[in-house]
## 1
Amino acid sequence: KNEDSLLEQLRRCNLALAQYSQTSGIYIVDFDRCFRTAGYSTLQTDWKLEGSKVAELAAQEICLLLEEGGVVDEFFEIAARR
């Protein structure tokens, strides 16, 4: 029962973060989703999230988010004007 309660709290927290992201315009990276999708055993890690594969996947997820949000294009546009 405690596990169900914790899962419900996590779902509510994730929903609140998604709503906050939409209203504030900030980016929130859902590392848990990408790590879960890749598989913790494949990443050779545990709840501590140690290891080079975890760091690489986290970096890829951040870059993807920045690219999808247009931040990368905006950066290069600003750099080209200088």
## 2
Amino acid sequence: MAEARDGAARDLREAAATLRKAVADGSAPANLQELIDRLEKAAGRTAASEQPPDSGDRAANAQD
């Protein structure tokens, strides 16, 4: 779980760096899709790390 959060944090930092660079060099519109993709990826990782295990997995483990 910590690895997923670390990965999400890294992706968010990279996205922020991309935005800062785009703003600095005036190419924000060209880099906007890359920023959106990275933020969505980070959000997905964070959401996945916060969800409990699938209930089907728990049921299967209980039967073992």
## 3
Amino acid sequence: MAVRRSPKFANFAMLGALLGAVAAFILTVSIPQDLEYARANGFAEYSQMQIFGFLLLIGVVVGIAIALTIAILLDRRSSKKRRYVEADRVDVREAPVPSADIETDAVDAADAPAIEHNPPQAYPTTNEGKA
């Protein structure tokens, strides 16, 4: 059996989205809002929240893309360092608990050996024998 460590892609994507959002916030705060300069040169006027929204969309997408690219590279690197180990299959099940209303001699079909055929026992109904 081959064993290797691999990155969790969802964690990388969430981290990339978070870093993209932080970068968008930092860029929004660092851009000076000079409305007079924008009006004088014919640029569009955007509020700081609109700028943050635009940068947030771009930052989250770019952050996720970069983080997933790093995760893919780490996954490829880890596939080269795989180890082969010998493993045994262990099937662990709890023992069935006998209840008071069911006979303890009855064997469930799931617990019966594969060679024998032990159908589940049918319990009598109250309408048996009545027409």
